[in-house]
Amino acid sequence: MDSGNDTLTYSNPVFEPVLADPTVIKVGNEFFAYGTEDNWGKEGGYHLVPVIKSPDLVNWEVVGNSMAKKPNWKERGGIWAPDVTQVGDQFYMYYSFSTWGDPNPGIGLAISEKPEGPFIDQGPVFTSEEIGVKNSIDPFYIEENGKKFLIWGSFHGLFMTELSSDGKKPKGDKIQLAGNHLEAAYVFKKDGFYYLFGSAGTCCEGANSTYQVLVGRSKNLSGPYLDQEGKNMKEEDSGTLVVGRNESDHGYAGPGHNAEIVTDSKGQHWLLYHGMSKQKPKLENGTNRRVLLLDKIQWTDGWPEIKNKEPSLKAKDAPVFK
């Protein structure tokens, strides 16, 4: 990264070795990003929901773990795909508690007074069995008209439910937003539309991962969400491509599970997401080396995409924050 001529440039990845399933918030003049529980092995050791911080989305430093101890409302499992949002003066982290192939994973809530943590567990919001949706992981929190909502799901439909006023339990009926081909939901509002992002394909097969980010949009938060071809996102082959794997052998496989879109001082939109270098897709201990990638979103006819619909491999102008 270089700051000659007052123009900062950067090249992917912006953080390594691992920050899988990222979420990002801005507090004051700093960004905080969080990721799935992982063991970075010789490249950094074990992290229980790692938190990193940056002034510019490009230069990141490790803060530590955002949780002091693992929640205990399940006998075993990992804390995956956190979603952090400032709610009033506090910071809410919705998280997945699951193992691979877990018959009853769930979504929990932890709350902190500071963005770096420690986040104190509040217990489960719901389990898959309680909410009636298999593989209930990958939470995303959004507020609309003074109400709190949670969107979630992983390859058994993307769903939305209203939450209680304290954000700790579901309230009312759940609504299906998208089909069984997606996980990692995120919604972004722009120009009267709600854009529903989701990831399709395999996340965690190293260089063979097929993960990619797809999008649909709606005039209403509750849908229906349609892709650029007008296909309902509940259909299996729906979704307009935002970013997929590089064709180059020196590129990235499995780019996906995007964080929140960040708007810089120039009004440009930026997407953080993870991917694996095809040349170095795993850590020495076998963990998927899901590094943090950053790219600018370009809007074409009202639809978002990364340039060439693949991660950038060369130096680019960085986000501008004044």
TrEMBL record:
Asked whether the keyword 4Fe-4S is assigned, the reply is no
**Gene3D superfamilies in the record, alphabetically?**
Glycosyl hydrolase domain, family 43 (2.115.10.20)
Q: Which GO terms describe its biological process?
A: carbohydrate metabolic process
Record GO terms (molecular function) = hydrolase activity, hydrolyzing O-glycosyl compounds
Lineage of origin? Bacteria, Pseudomonadati, Bacteroidota, Cytophagia, Cytophagales
Q: Which organism encodes this protein?
A: Algoriphagus machipongonensis
Q: Which Pfam families match?
A: Glyco_hydro_43
Q: Does the keyword Magnesium apply?
A: no
Give the family, as the similarity comment puts it: Belongs to the glycosyl hydrolase 43 family.
Q: What name goes with this protein?
A: Glycoside hydrolase family 43
Q: What positions does UniProt annotate as the active site of this protein?
A: 21 (proton acceptor), 183 (proton donor)
Looking up CDD domains in the UniProt record yields: GH43_ABN-like
